[in-house]
Amino acid sequence: MKITIIGLGFVGLTTALGFADKNFDVVGYDIDTDRTAKINNGLVPFLEPGLDSVLECTLGVKFKTAVNAAEAAKDADCIFFCVGTPCGIDGKADLKHLLAAIDSVIATVRPECVFVIKSTIPPGTTANTVIPHIRTKGFNGSVAVNPEFLREGYCWKDFMNPDRIVCGCAERDTNAIALLTELYTPFNAPIHFVSSNTAEFIKYLSNSLLASLISFSNEMALIAEATGGISIVKAFKILHQDKRLDGSGINNYIYPGCGYGGYCLPKDTVALSANAKAKGFEPRILNGVISLNNEMSYLAAVKIADMTKSKDEKIGILGLSFKPDSDDVRDSPAAKIIDCLLRNGYRNIYAYDPIATDVFRTAYGLDITYCGSKEDVCDTCDTVAVVTTWQEFQGIHLKYPQKKWCDCRYWLEG
Questions:
Q1: Integer CA distances (angstroms), 180 to 7, 82, 105, 375, in order
Q2: Distance of alpha carbon 349 from alpha carbon 189, whole angstroms
């Protein structure tokens, strides 16, 4: 079986290498030529533990890249579309990259090829938009939805050891069902065949739940701060001892901070809300989750500012990626906090991140000073905020007790 992957970002490259590791023949293509060049040189173009060694073993053997999408799709038994679906101006998922990717291969595919949408798309998109678009282009083959449930920093582990595999397609589409069953049987996980609407919904259901847990935790922390006399860290640590939660990875989301970031949760919650409104339903809880999350970075910036004596004071920011062990700065709370401080007249801001500094500088272009170490920040600044929970920051406040510390993640005491 020949598998084609269109889009070689976190999801696409992990998917490509995962199938290659299971001894399938995989061809990948990405519109970003710089990214493809790095991959061809054996370099993973982003930080994701575990992928480097797999790329080294499979590149040129079971995994290859193509110079264009049409070449990648030639003679493919199935094509996985793993391209971005960012938020549009109206909050709805922007499908232009997905539809463009489909258009780039549709003229060269075999009639029996199965199109598999791995991009995150709102419920009803495959049935109401993707399939009609494909049919107008003359392709009458199978179309399926196969959402991913990968955590950045754990992509390889999550792909190779899935807890469930969700495939959305028509009940009578034996071609798609047989192919996806063959592909995923080696992963030894439950395979759920559902309608495309259901498969799309499950992805949003998962991400919206995680976002809701984070916003709920943040609201509880704000209530505790307003009340006073409450150890927020101890309260949440004791909550986690509940036998219904203890030992569960869900605990990572039931803890306060300065808001969720990254690529998935911000855009997916907004897209689901916009999709619901378009269908005539106003999602009150989901809108509250989004609203509070949008406010958290501002509240963190206010907390930092309240610690300073003047707007000339030097403020340190430790952590720029949206989460530790990642160089992803998309929708990073740090960027929002810094931007808020700058807009309120604080000009002496110094920042450090173990690996994401260069990416952050390029992505945001903020007028701040970037430091080469956490010590540089702490030696320079009067007030220091911990925004990302990199392990190297643990206990840093004990080495600099004379500094004013803003623990934006309720983490230094942990």
A1: 19, 16, 20, 51
A2: 48
Q: Measure the CA–CA gap between 339 and 301, rounded to whole angstroms.
A: 9
Question: CB-based contacts of 217: which residues, under 8 Å, 6+ apart?
Answer: 236, 253, 254, 255, 256, 257
Q: Per CATH, which fold does 203-407 belong to?
A: Rossmann fold (3.40.50)
Query: Angle CA(17)–CA(19)–CA(25) in degrees, nearest 5?
Result: 95
* Global confidence as pTM: 0.94
Q: What does the alpha-carbon distance between residue 82 and residue 119 come to, in Å, rounded to a whole number?
A: 5
Helix, strand or coil for residue 80? strand
CA distance 242 to 56: 43
- 346-356: pLDDT as tens digits: 999 999 999 99
> Residue 374: its pLDDT value, please?
97
264 classed as catalytic: yes
For tokens 């709102």, what's the residue?
A: 122
Annotated catalytic residue within 78, 82, 264, 378:
264
Residue 207 to residue 273: CA distance in whole angstroms: 12
Cα separations in angstroms, 234 against 259, 372, 392 = 20, 33, 22
Average pLDDT value for the chain: 96
103 by DSSP, 3-state: which? Answer: helix
- The residue type found at 116 is V
Per-residue model confidence as pLDDT tens digits over 38-52: 999 999 999 999 999
pLDDT digits (tens, 9 = 90+) for 139-192: 999 999 999 999 998 999 999 999 999 999 999 999 999 999 999 999 999 999
Could you read off the pLDDT of 106-134 as tens digits, one per residue? 999 999 999 999 999 999 999 999 999 99
pLDDT at 414: 60
Write down the residue that tokens 């945001």 correspond to.
Answer: 364
Residues 14 and 3: their CA atoms lie apart, in Å, by: 13
The CATH number, out of the four listed (3.40.1390.20, 3.40.50.720, 3.30.1330.60, 2.60.40.10), of the domain defined by the range 2-194:
3.40.50.720
